[in-house]
Amino acid sequence: RQHEGPRRVKRAWVIPPISVSENHKRIPHLLVQIKSDKQQPGGVIYSIKGPGVDEEPLGIFSIDKFSGKVFLNAMLDREENDRYRLRAFALDLGGVTLEDPTDLEIIVVDQNDNRPLFRQDVFTGHVVEGAEPGTCVMTVDATDADDPDTDNAALRYSILDQGAAGMFSINATTGEICTARPGLDRETMGMYNLTVQAADMSGDGLTTTAMAVIYLEDINDNPPEFTKEEFSMEVKEQAAGVDVGKVFVHDKDLAGSPSWLAKFTILEGDPEGAFAIRTDPHTNDGVLSVVKPLDHEVRDRFELTVSVQNERPLEASAPASPRALATVRVRVRDVNEAPVFRENPRRISVLEGTPPGTPITTYTASDPDTHQIQTLTYALLYDPADWLQLDPHAGTVRTKRELLHPSAFLQGGWYIALVLARDDAEPPLSATGTLSIEILEVNDHAPQLQPPARVLCGRPGRGGTLLLGATDDDRPPHGAPFHFQLSPQHPQLARNWSIARFNVTHAVLAVLAELPEGPYSLPLLLRDSGTPPREQLQLLNVSVCHCGRDGTCLDGVLAAATAGAGITLGALLIILGSTILLLVLAGLGAARVRGRRRALRKGLLQRSRDDMRDNILNYDEQGGGEEDQDAYDINQLRHPELFSPRAKPPLRRDAPLSSGTPLAPRKLPSSPSDIEDFINEGLEAADSDPSVPPYDTALIYDYEGSGSVASPLSSIVSSLTDEDQDYDYLSEWGPRFRRLADLYG
């Protein structure tokens, strides 16, 4: 089929735009009649659709479906809707479309039914005073809801009222307000109220009005001025930091602005800077104050020259004027002044232990009132330790009691006291002086060993050392460093012990030779570094324990003893009670056995008059064998009063050096038959001596060392051949056995 060209639309079915005026009051009003060329025997049915018909707003337009007439059924408002676009339809009676739908446009014609409206009721503007003519201040503007393309919205502006001056003008088209003439002065008139108007129809239509308020901004065109040329004031002497009075000024510029704020300067009359002047921010007046105490006896009046000017410099347009000056006269009034301690605090040094009644200083004050005759008295205001006494008239300070150190009243070695000085004026005034007394340290304490009892392993090397410490109640430099030394009175201690410095307060005690287990009392000499140094001989109780491989103590009893510090009081009492009970039982058993032995020995002595003790040899040194034949002299037992009538008994090795002898001396035997009784009584006295630990066994008077791994000397004779014996160990027994080692080794 051939392609069809564009269908030709008949002229009768094309509807041109229809114009209708807004606010048309005659309704219903015929707008147009539409008609289709395709008439049917039964006729044509017309209809329209769109805004105003079947869309919001409803019911504005309608159509006669048989004649095609379109009617306006309500008043139109162009400001709400300036045009309507509808669609027109033509159908036969069966509802079949006869024509394609066509557009129907209805245009609402504007009328001048809206007044102009200013955007705000009051417009505000600012302009500096003295502004040149033509200086624009602000712009007022209005709107009109009518069609802007017509004169209905063509606005014109004008000023209806601004007072008699006529200082401002307005642009009729733009609404811009500008200055019209010179002479704006804030001090004369600071605000202008203008009534402005806007009219449409180019000024001939509807009108509206608004207010335009214009504020003049201040400039510094007026200098401050004093209200009078002279001011008089009075102030008390010795008053500092107080206000004396005010000087008053006036400034025409805006109060509170930088152009109004004044600045004062003292030009003359105060060379020492005793006064200061500041500005009161609320009143802009000058406040004169005293910054340094004034003395009536030195100067009783001042005459000051004060100037004033603004913080901000004057504008160039302001008229020239000289600087404002004023004279301020200040009189200093005499008052009673308190005494003054010229040296406060007073610092002195006093040796520790200064005897009572010793003068240490004279602490006095002076009275500034030289024109008045006054007497000063003194008293101790604060003396916490009651160490001082003070002469109330001369101010001499003496010691009331011995000054000791340390004391809870000392602060870093200083004792603080307060002295009160008072005059006899009416009313009396007083002053307080601080007396700081440095208590100089005296070396009056020797260092103390801490702690005095220790435990160590008796094997040289690992475990055979102790870290010893000491304390000193004296303060530096009379304390550390400490010097630790084995007592020079016991040089034999150096065979088994050594002591070396560890630091300023500690030393290391070391074992030089293997020692048997048991308690040892080592006298140590401790010396401090004071001037002169103090030294003291002190005992260090050392318990030598059984050593393990790692140098630690393996003795359970000794470990329990060293841990006894952690035993509670109840447990300690139980242990002590059990120990006492065991000692009592052991003592009873020992006494019974001792009685039996005594009876047996007496019988032996009666049977044989020969004293076998004449053959006892002294092998104490274990040295020369048969060459050492010095027998023990039995006469020392028979007649001890002939050999050592006043000699002290030998000290027990396990007793402290400081332990004394029994208070009651033992009676010497009168005959050889009582020697056994003499020995038993000595043993019993040693057991009951309260100054040493109790022992229920024989006392050890000389310890010969632990057992040797070597065989008895008899093995030298009894061995079959020299090759079966190893005699190298004899060289370890000392110089007396080295010869045997050389012969048989």
TrEMBL record:
Where in or outside the cell is it found?
Cell membrane
The protein's UniProt keywords, in alphabetical order, are: Calcium, Cell adhesion, Cell membrane, Cleavage on pair of basic residues, Glycoprotein, Membrane, Metal-binding, Repeat, Signal, Transmembrane, Transmembrane helix
The UniProt entry's GO CC annotations, sorted and at most eight, read: adherens junction; catenin complex; cell surface
| InterPro entries with a match to the protein in the record | Cadherin (IPR039808), Cadherin-like_dom (IPR002126), Cadherin-like_sf (IPR015919), Cadherin_CS (IPR020894), Cadherin_Y-type_LIR (IPR000233), Catenin-bd_sf (IPR027397)
Classify the source by domain of life.
Answer: Eukaryota
Output the Gene Ontology terms for molecular function: beta-catenin binding; cadherin binding; calcium ion binding
Where in the numbering of this chain does the Cadherin domain appear? 12-118, 119-226, 227-341, 342-449, 464-554
Q: Which SMART domains match?
A: CA
Picking any one GO biological process from the record gives: adherens junction organization
From the record, give the transmembrane residue ranges. 569-591
User: Which protein are we looking at?
Assistant: Cadherin-15
Q: Which organism is it from?
A: Cnemophilus loriae (Loria's bird-of-paradise)
Q: What lineage does UniProt assign to this protein's organism?
A: Eukaryota, Metazoa, Chordata, Craniata, Vertebrata
Q: Which gene encodes it?
A: Cdh15
